[in-house]
């Protein structure tokens, strides 16, 4: 299984889920998908929202290593507030996306109306947006 991450699950992110999951993933390098990226405010920092669109969205591609277990996928799903049994109520949904260089990967797509205060990221690079804006990245776990 391959994953496209573009925000708080990227390697080097300062949250416990990203740190734990990267022990089970093989980094494959930079990757891009087509979409529209937005920065969403939260009391615990900013996080990105990937929506349908035609712009570039920059991230990284990872492959699950041997030993990656359904419980690990469930941990990522819970972090992204994705409940496969209730996708309509989920903040994100995990779907297969087309990579611009070819091939596919699983990615988390924003699944609710964008909240007030959301900012577009026209260049499609969340980490670059954080550096340019001086805002802090989301590091806490959402309350269920």
Give the arrangement of secondary structure elements.
Elements: E1 2-5, H1 16-21, E2 25-40, E3 47-64, H2 70-79, E4 92-98, E5 104-110, E6 119-120, H3 126-133
Antiparallel strand pairs: 1-3, 2-3, 2-6, 4-5
What does this structure look like?
The chain is 17% helix and 38% strand. The protein is built from three helices and six strands. The chain starts with a strand and ends in an 11-residue tail after the last helix. By secondary structure, the protein is of the alpha+beta class. Strand 4 (92-98) and strand 5 (104-110) form a beta hairpin.
What characteristics describe this protein?
single chain; 144 residues; alpha+beta; two-stranded antiparallel ribbon; 17% helix; globular
Distance between the termini: 26 Å
Strand content: 35-45%
- Tertiary shape: globular
Integer-rounded radius of gyration: 14 Å
Number of strands: 6
Portion in helices: 10-25%
Mean pLDDT over all positions: 94
**Unreliable stretches:** none
Order of helices and strands: EHEEHEEEH
Number of helices: 3
* Content-based structural category: alpha+beta
What does this entry show, briefly?
With 144 residues, this protein is an alpha+beta fold. Helix content is 17%, strand content 38%. The chain contains three helices and six strands; from the N terminus they run E-H-E-E-H-E-E-E-H.
